[in-house]
Specification:
This protein is of the alpha/beta class and 387 residues long. It folds into two domains: 1-54 and 348-387, Urease, subunit C, domain 1 (Roll); 56-346, Metal-dependent hydrolases (TIM Barrel). The chain has ten helices and 16 strands.
């Protein structure tokens, strides 16, 4: 058993506890509190007042799928050869020895959801991974966390418009997405009917991955920056009864009341975008704070590879522009865990959760703070506490 004592514990579920202790055993949190009895046989680590948070989670990442400067542009997350590639799987691009994994741990991250990119209207499946040292990709992947990536707006429009093929417009993107979902729904109904009647059914490799999507059994992650694209995602999601999350939500502040009323799940970010394309010209650090005030619940994301480690600094800037401390912590912990359907395992410091922790020598969102250690499943994979 390991006892982390004399720390400032950001529990998420029970406030911030001063002079707290955290007991860890067999990869799980046993207890968190200010008056815990420390077992005599426990290994004790006095943290000297350092902050401890649940391990940070980036719910929208391309970590370990290629880095800038790699031959081919490092773009191993976009199979930009067809607007619908639901059958490709991010797990086949994930590099368990990527330099991005230890870099993200140095920022306090213990888990990310690594997704295909946004060149395609339907880009394939992503999956959540724990950022451990690994001998294979299967050591990282969290089973049952597969999600389907989709994209609206300038990315698929630009990718295929340049090829003079559909979709060249936002109209075309909507049509391509609806057609794929319509075909998948018919296919799923025919499959169910064949199974019910005991008849043989000819499977289609490209449609099979969309069956759980149209049945509401697999969550969709829909890239959309502009307010009108966000509303298109909501409209199509409601038309087909999808379990969906809107990604980036750059102009979310413009329609925050609608998103709050409909309780739309959102991942916001990256927060510091240069005006590289028209749909992000309205990017503002005030977006998270304004969405919070409207009653939206969201996670915050770096949408990056190795640069994931700098997300806490961006969150601190968002706090300077109106985001509350409470929501800031939730956005990298429990809200992100909810997006990944992992809130039963991570996102808070409480008994029974995975022992995924990050230790900081100051406020975690201050740019003068350093992450000193990161623990995943009770094991320190990054530790500079003695430095």
């Amino acid at each position: 058993m390991l006892a982390l004592t004399n720390c400032k514990a950001v529990t998420i579920c029970d406030g911030i506890l001063e002079h707290a202790s955290i007991l860890v055993e067999d990869g799980k949190i046993l207890a968190v509190g200010t008056d815990l009895e420390i077992p005599a046989d426990a290994e004790v680590m006095d943290l000297g007042g350092k902050w401890v948070t649940p391990g940070f989670i980036d719910a929208h990442s391309h970590l370990a799928m290629g880095e800038p400067g790699v031959k081919g542009g490092g773009d191993d997350d976009n199979e930009a050869t067809d607007p619908v590639t639901a059958h490709v799987r991010m797990i086949d691009s994930l590099d368990p020895w990527s330099i991005g994994i230890p870099a993200a741990r140095m920022g306090g991250f213990t888990c990310v959801c690594s997704l295909p990119g946004s060149a395609n209207v339907i880009g394939g499946t992503g999956v959540a991974v724990k950022l451990k040292d690994a001998n294979s990709v299967l050591d990282l992947v969290i089973p049952g966390t597969e999600v389907m990536k989709m994209a609206l707006g300038e990315n698929p429009k630009g990718c295929y418009g340049e090829m003079k093929r559909m979709p060249m417009t936002r109209m075309g993107i909507g049509a391509v997405l609806r057609e794929a979902l319509f075909n998948a729904r018919q296919y799923a109904d025919n499959m169910a009917e064949a199974e019910k009647e005991g008849k043989p059914f000819k499977h289609n490799f490209k449609l099979d991955p969309l069956v759980p999507v149209v049945r509401g059994e697999m969550r969709c992650r829909i890239h959309c920056h502009r307010a009108d694209d966000i509303l298109t995602a909501v409209r199509i999601g409601e038309e087909f009864g999808l379990d969906f999350v809107v990604e980036h939500c750059t102009e979310g502040f413009m329609i925050a009341d609608i998103l709050a009323k409909k309780q739309v799940k959102c991942v916001v970010g990256p927060l510091r975008l240069i005006p590289g394309k028209m749909e992000i010209w309205n990017c503002t650090m005030e977006n998270p704070g304004l969405m919070e005030k409207a009653g939206c619940e969201f996670a915050l994301s770096a949408d990056a590879q190795t640069a994931t480690r700098w997300l806490p600094e961006e969150v601190g800037i968002a706090m300077a522009y109106g985001l509350s401390e409470e929501t800031a912590f939730k956005a990298l912990t429990i809200n992100a865990a909810k997006i990944l359907n992992l809130d039963h395992r991570m996102g808070t410091l409480e008994a029974g959760k995975d022992a995924d922790l990050a230790i900081f020598d100051g406020h975690p969102f201050c740019n003068m703070t350093r992450c000193k250690a990161t623990m995943i499943d009770g094991v320190f994979y990054f530790n500079e506490l003695d430095k």
